[in-house]
Amino acid sequence: MARIELTGRQKAAVLLISYGSELSSKILKHLREDEIEDLTLEIANLRRVDVETKEKVLQEFYEMCLAQNYISTGGIEYAQEMLEKALGPSRAQDILTKLTSALQIRPFDFARKTEPTQLLNFIQSEHPQTIALVMSYLHPEQAGMILSALPPPQQVEVAKRIATMDRTSPEVLREVESVLEKKLSSFVMQDFTVAGGVEAAVAILNRVDRGTEKTIMEALEEDNPELAEEIKKRMFVFENIVTLDDRSIQTVLRQVDMKDLALALKTASEEVASRIFKNVSKRAAEMLKEDMSLMGPVRLRDVEEAQQKVVNVIRQLDESGEIVIARGGEDEIIV
Questions:
Q1: Under a CB-based contact definition with an 8 Å cutoff, are residues 214 and 205 in contact?
Q2: CA–CA separation, 145 and 178 (whole Å)
Q3: What is the pLDDT of residues 118-159, one digit of tens each?
Q4: pLDDT digits over 57-108, tens only?
Q5: What is the pTM of this model?
Q6: How far apart are CA 187 and CA 75, in angstroms?
Q7: Residue 221: is it exposed, middle or buried by C-beta count within 10 angstroms (0-12/13-18/19+)?
Q8: Cα atoms found within 13 Å of the Cα of residue 236, Cβ hemisphere only
C-alpha cells in the first residue's frame, strides 16, 4: 500500500509530537492563535505516528534548517553548493525550492549582512518611503541604529511609514534592491510580500535610544494619535517585565492592584511568575497563588486586559523617571 504524502501542516504536527509536550509548548508560544488551533487539530487527528514517518519528517526538517543556515551564512548560491555536496543535486534543489515557496526567502538579504553605518550611506538620501521599505526587511537591531542616526524630522516620517506599510509588490522590491546594487536571486517569490506594520515599528523603536523614541512618539501623537496609542501599547509587553531590575519590579508592584496581578499571571511564563513572586513578601506570594487557584477558568481577553493594566503602570513609571526600561543605544544602567 502506497504511503500518503503528508501536508506541511501534518508534518509540523508530527514534528511537535516528536519533540514531546514540554518543548512543543514552548514552540507554540511563538505562533499565532489560528496556527495553534490548526496544529492542535492536526495533532488530535494523528493518533499514531510510525517510526518511519517520524524519521522522514525529522530528516526533512533537519535539511531545511541546514539549508536556511547556509542561506543566512552565504546566500542562495552558497547554500546550493553546500547542499549539493551534502545531499546531492536533486535533493538540494528540492530543499531550496521548498524553502523559497514555503518559508519565502525575504528580500534584502545583502542589506541584512551589511554594517548599519555602511547601509545608512546607501539609503539616507532616499525618499522616506524607500527608507521605510528597506528598514522593514532589516533586523530590528540594524533598523534601530539607522533610525537613530537619521535627522529627527526624517525619523518621524520613516517610523510613520513603517507602521502604516502593508504590502509591497515584487516590482517595487526589485527596483529598490537595484538602487542598493543588490543582485536578485533566481528564487525571488513572485507573489506580494508583507513587510512593515505596527509590529515592525515597535520592534525598531524598542531598540532606539530614549531621545529618538520620545521625538518620534510625540510627533506621532500629534499627527496620528490612534497609531501612536497602538504603538505605545506594544512597546513594552507584560512578558518584558523580566528585563526590569528587582527594585523597579518592586516599585511597579506597589502601584498594581493585586487582583489585576493575579489575573495577569494566569498565562505568564514560569520566568515572569518567578520574578514577581521573588519581589513580593512571602505572605503576598501565598495570597497571589491562592487567588490564582481560586480564580478558575478565565477569558483570555480578561487576562490580556489585566496584563495591559500592569504594562500601563510600568510605562507611566518609566515616563516619570521612577523606573528605567532598558533600550538599545543607551549606556548600561548603574545602580
A1: no
A2: 23
A3: 677 767 778 888 888 888 888 888 888 889 889 888 999 999
A4: 888 888 888 877 777 677 667 777 888 888 888 888 887 777 665 444 466 6
A5: 0.41
A6: 11
A7: middle
A8: 21
